[in-house]
Amino acid sequence: MNYYAPTALIALLMPAAVPAAVTQSSPDGAIIEHHFTIAAEPAVAWGALVHPERWWPSDHTWSGDRANLRLEAQAGGCFCENWGEASAEHARVIMAQPGSLLRMRGALGPLQDMAVTGVLTIQLKTTDSGGTEATVTYRLSGDASHKLDTFVPVVDKVIGQQFGAFAAFASAPPKPAL
Questions:
Q1: Pick from 144, 136, 145, 137: which is nearest to 167 by CA?
Q2: CA triplet 61, 65, 70: central angle to 5 degrees?
Q3: What is the rounded distance in angstroms from the CA atom of residue 75 to the CA atom of residue 56?
Q4: I want to staple 101 with a disulfide (CB 3.0 to 4.6 A). Which of 7, 97, 115, 161 is the partner?
C-alpha cells in the first residue's frame, strides 16, 4: 500500500498554478479556468483525480469529511457524498477518457440551491518533461437574476483550492510500503 504525505505537508509542496483566469463573467454566466503543472504522468494524475476522497478539501463537503466522497469515473457516474443517512450529488459524469479528460455537470456547493448549471472539465496533457498539465475549466450559467458576476471571484478561489489540492496530491511521490 502506498502512503501519501499528510495534507499539511502537501499544502506546503503545492505546485504553483498559472494565474487563474475568469475568462467570462456576467450576471447570467461565468467561465473560470485554472492550469496546474503536476509532477507525474497523466495516468498517475488520473489515478489521483478519480479519488477525491483522498485530496478534496474536507471544508468543501456537506459532511465536513472528504472520506465521504466517491467518484464513478464513467458516463452517468456520480460524484457523490454519503454520510449517515444523508447524501448529496455534487455532479454527474458526462464524459470520461481515462488519463486525459473528465467532464461533469453539476452546480457545486451553494450553487446547487440556485439551480445554476455548471460544467466542470479537467483535461490532462503530457508536458515536455513527462509530467502533466491539468487544465480545469468551470462554466456556469443561469438567469440574470443569479448575478453570477458578483460572486465569481469566490467560486474562482474555491476551484483553485480544490484542484490545487488535487495537483499537490497527484504530484506527491508515494511513500514506500512499510
A1: 136
A2: 75
A3: 21
A4: 97
pTM of the model: 0.86
Strands 29-38 and 69-71: unpaired
Any domain includes 72: yes
Using CA atoms, how far residue 96 sits from 68, 105, 122, in Å, is: 22, 12, 10
**How far is it, in rounded angstroms, from Cα 167 to Cα 134?**
8
Place of cell 471544508: 59
- Residue 78's domain comprises 7-171
12-26 pLDDT, tens per residue? 334 444 456 888 889
pLDDT tens profile 118-144? 999 999 999 999 999 999 999 999 999
CA–CA distances in Å: residue 42 to residues 34, 36, 118, 171: 17, 12, 25, 11
Domain annotation covers residue 70: yes
Tell me phi and psi for residue 140, to 5 degrees.
Answer: -120, 140
